[in-house]
């Protein structure tokens, strides 16, 4: 019999459509890592001494560490001396308007489908576009400034708002957190900074497109979002990377801080180059993302759609410190070809009556391996804490795999932790039903998979949800037949 | 002739389920197929719709073309529709979205333009009214948590939207209350016409009061063992399959014996 479960042996990759590289005049620091490189990065960015000191402390700690290998992914050794730690497009004179942005750069954004002009005119989405390590264009600043929202590159924030950066930097992800976070703390080059003052509802979705451009550039961004008391913000992150033969390291850090009654919603659609059908090339995505519900009644939600990267290793988590605070994690992870993902979340309940919800949807096709690894921890102080976790896996083809590792630590007797998990194959009856109604097998697979993910997609802002569905369909192309 | 089935055999592994089916259905006709449980009625329907689980020999011509050579989706585009005995649930896929995707796929294949959202909505609303289906079902996932009868009604809604040439209804009447039966029959009759044909699989003569067949066939042991006009259904209702004589009885035990 030739149903999909037997049929889907090979997942034939869709040509990666963002695989082009732009010839920008790039300012690079020589390969390799040592204290001088860190001092050079810091000097190029005119950083204050406290930041250089912080970087150096991180570096000195990092050289004492061993690369971790406990995660359920496999990759060749990374030579940290063979990485360029800083590459910036050559600075242009101050830009008076968007029209002055490098035309090459504009073209690149157009290819990516993000026209800044369009964005500015039509969409009401503020875009902070990051090419390699330096933020080159920021739109909507004025409108945001009117309500007191600060949205700029990390470097700018360090220059213009050091009093806001310094107390929060490393307050959620300390530089000693883990190997890759420590490395990032030492060498991070840029990223985004958002500050939403007390009581302000950010008037638009904030959006950043990260992009890795120069060859052999490890990218180490650092993002910090602070929502003061009663503030509210939704932040969108989208990523693409051009096609390269060498695996590229990506070790970002994202820190979110929500004070009393604040809400932060952080959405990611990630489709970095996953490598070709044999598993060559592609991005190593080792990211530390964490939010802290520092105040009572605050809420942090992570929503992620991961379809790219050769290897993904990330656990966006929430520290639920304030009483009655809420942490949410909604995730769709698709692995195809030889992609590997080890992802999940960490919910740390500290405050009373803290609630967390975890919904993870994993889709594995071809030789894809998908691992959910989640930690739910309720401390002794977390009276009345509650967690609900659902992990569903969908397998396409017999060479793919799904693995679930839930870790639960309960220190308070009143805490309630529930875990549900399911693994299913795409059903032949469902496929036949769709095909009998005239829907092609490929469209049927994509429709069923999208249906499987709906619970997560509905958490995404509208335009992102549409993009996520499109991406999923593209990534699934050729997965049947 | 719209549908010509000749010496059709279908098996799964060693289990031969269809054992030489012959049947001809002309445009404009309604044929009923009755027969004991496990006699192969649903298998025949599945084979006609293109289910890939079976090893098949014999010929099936649809409007003179080799139906067995087509993929399920191409058969749908050619105008074959199967109302399933057990419609599947598709979690997370909206009913209305599913219907529009299906209609536009079929329209594309048939060389008609796709219907835009407004055009589709107008059509869907009209057909929902025909089968008296509440709009609230449209925003729910395909068949998910529908009652048995609601699933059947949804099949008929899909049929009236897709407007097939040949519709095969596999026990669409099972599990329907009296009102629903009347409504479903109304939907089916609205589709009848000189260019269309219907094959109605049922266990109940009752349905045939609403959808009056031109011919009634009895299937047993993977074959059609008897054919007649609508009176045959009444006869079966009164006397059961035992009265059909030795042939049915022996075929029936053969079929049961072959069941794993
Ligand atoms: N996938 C399968 N594998 C093995 N045997 C099967 C399979 N599908 C059907 N059969 C067998 O084929 C025979 C005919 O089944 P079918 O569903 O066609 O019967 P039916 O006439 O529709 O019965 P009912 O009136 O109960 O719906 C049964 O004995 C059944 O067990
Ligand atoms: Mg049946």
Describe this structure in words.
The complex is a heterodimer of chains A (481) and B (260). With 481 residues, chain A is an alpha/beta fold. Chain A is built from 13 helices and 24 strands. Chain A has helices at 4-7, 35-44, 49-62, 103-112, 116-123, 141-146, 154-160, 162-168, 179-187, 428-436, 441-452, 454-457, 462-476, and strands at residues 26-28, 87-89, 126-131, 134-138, 150-153, 192-196, 206-211, 222-227, 232-240, 248-250, 253-258, 263-270, 283-293, 299-306, 311-314, 317-320, 326-335, 340-343, 346-349, 355-365, 369-378, 386-396, 401-410, 416-425. Chain B is α/β, with parallel strands linked by helices. Helix content of chain B is 40%, strand content 27%. Chain B contains 9 helices and 12 strands. Chain B has helices spanning 41-49, 72-78, 95-109, 117-130, 148-162, 178-191, 205-210, 230-239, 246-258, and strands at residues 3-12, 15-25, 30-34, 55-62, 65-66, 80-83, 90-94, 141-142, 166-170, 197-201, 215-220, 223-228. A 6-stranded mixed beta sheet of chain B has the order 6-9-10-3-11-12, sandwiched between helices. A 4-stranded antiparallel beta sheet of chain B has the order 2-1-4-5, with helices on one face. In chain B, strands 7-8 form a two-stranded antiparallel sheet. In chain B, helix 2 crosses helix 3 (95-109) and helix 5 (148-162) runs parallel beside helix 6 (178-191). Mean pLDDT of chain B is 89; it is low at 249-260.
């Amino acid at each position: 019999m030739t149903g999909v479960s037997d049929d889907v042996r090979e997942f034939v990759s869709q040509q990666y459509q963002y695989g082009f590289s732009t010839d920008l005049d790039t300012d690079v620091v020589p390969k390799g890592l040592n204290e001088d490189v860190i001092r050079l990065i810091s000097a190029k960015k005119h950083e204050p001494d406290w930041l250089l000191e912080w970087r150096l402390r991180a570096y000195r700690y990092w050289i004492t560490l061993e690369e971790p290998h406990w995660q359920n992914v496999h990759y060749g050794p990374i030579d940290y001396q063979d990485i360029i730690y800083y590459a910036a497009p050559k600075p242009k004179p101050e830009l008076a308007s968007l029209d002055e942005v490098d035309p090459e750069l504009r073209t690149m954004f157009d290819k990516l489908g993000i026209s800044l002009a369009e964005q500015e005119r039509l969409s009401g989405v503020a875009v902070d576009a990051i090419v390699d390590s330096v933020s080159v264009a920021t739109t909507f600043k004025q409108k945001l400034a009117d309500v007191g929202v600060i949205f700029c590159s990390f470097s700018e924030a360090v220059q213009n708002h050091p009093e806001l950066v310094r107390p929060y930097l490393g307050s959620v992800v300390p530089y000693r957190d883990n190997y890759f976070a420590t490395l990032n703390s030492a060498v991070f080059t840029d990223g985004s900074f958002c500050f939403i003052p007390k009581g302000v509802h950010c008037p638009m979705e904030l959006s950043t497109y990260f992009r890795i451009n120069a060859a052999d550039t490890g990218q180490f961004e650092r993002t910090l979002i602070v929502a003061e008391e009663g503030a509210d913000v939704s932040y969108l992150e989208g990523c693409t990377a051009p096609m390269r033969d060498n695996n590229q390291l990506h070790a970002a850090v994202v820190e979110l801080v929500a004070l009393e009654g604040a809400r932060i919603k952080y959405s990611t659609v990630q489709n970095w180059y996953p490598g070709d059908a044999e598993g060559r090339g592609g991005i190593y995505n080792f990211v530390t993302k964490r939010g802290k519900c520092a105040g009572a009644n605050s809420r942090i939600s992570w929503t992620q759609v991961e379809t790219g990267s050769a290897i993904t290793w990330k656990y966006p988590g929430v520290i639920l410190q304030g009483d009655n605070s809420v942490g949410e994690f909604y995730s769709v992870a698709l692995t195809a070809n030889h992609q590997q993902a080890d992802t999940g979340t960490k919910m740390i309940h500290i405050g009373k009556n803290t609630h967390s919800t975890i919904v993870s949807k994993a889709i594995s096709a071809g030789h894809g391996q998908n691992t959910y690894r989640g930690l739910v921890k309720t401390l002794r102080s977390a009276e009345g804490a509650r967690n609900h976790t659902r992990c569903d896996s969908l397998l396409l083809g017999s060479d793919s795999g799904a693995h679930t590792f839930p870790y639960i630590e309960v220190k308070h007797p009143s805490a309630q932790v529930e875990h549900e998990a399911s693994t299913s194959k795409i059903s032949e009856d469902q496929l036949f039903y769709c095909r009998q109604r005239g829907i092609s097998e490929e469209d049927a697979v994509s429709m069923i998979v999208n249906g499987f993910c709906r619970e997560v997609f509905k958490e995404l802002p509208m335009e992102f949800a549409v993009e996520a569905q499109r991406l999923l369909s593209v990534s699934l192309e050729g997965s049947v037949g | 002739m719209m549908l010509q089935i000749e010496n059709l055999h279908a098996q799964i592994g060693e289990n031969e389920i269809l054992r030489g089916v012959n049947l001809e259905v002309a445009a404009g006709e309604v044929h009923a197929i009755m027969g004991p449980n496990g006699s192969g009625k649903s298998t025949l329907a599945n084979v006609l719709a293109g289910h890939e689980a079976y090893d098949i020999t014999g010929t099936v011509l649809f409007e003179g073309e080799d139906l067995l050579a087509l993929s399920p989706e191409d058969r749908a585009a050619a105008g074959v529709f199967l109302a399933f005995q057990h419609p599947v649930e598709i979690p997370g896929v909206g009913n209305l979205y599913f219907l529009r995707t299906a209609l536009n796929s079929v329209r594309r294949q048939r060389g008609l333009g796709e219907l835009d959202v407004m055009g589709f909505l107008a059509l869907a609303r009209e057909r929902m009214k025909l089968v008296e289906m509440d709009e609230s079902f449209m925003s729910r996932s395909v068949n998910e948590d529908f009652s048995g009868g609601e699933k059947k009604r949804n099949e008929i809604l899909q049929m009236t939207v897709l407007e097939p040439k040949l519709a095969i209804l596999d026990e669409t009447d099972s599990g329907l209350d009296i009102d629903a039966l009347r409504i479903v029959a109304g939907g089916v009759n609205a589709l009848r016409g000189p260019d269309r044909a219907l094959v109605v699989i049922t266990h109940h003569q009752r349905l045939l009061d609403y959808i009056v067949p031109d011919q009634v066939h009895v299937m047993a042991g993977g074959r059609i063992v008897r054919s007649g006009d609508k009176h045959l259904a009444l006869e079966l209702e009164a006397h059961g399959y035992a009265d059909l004589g030795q042939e049915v009885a022996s075929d029936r035990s053969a079929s049961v014996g072959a069941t794993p």
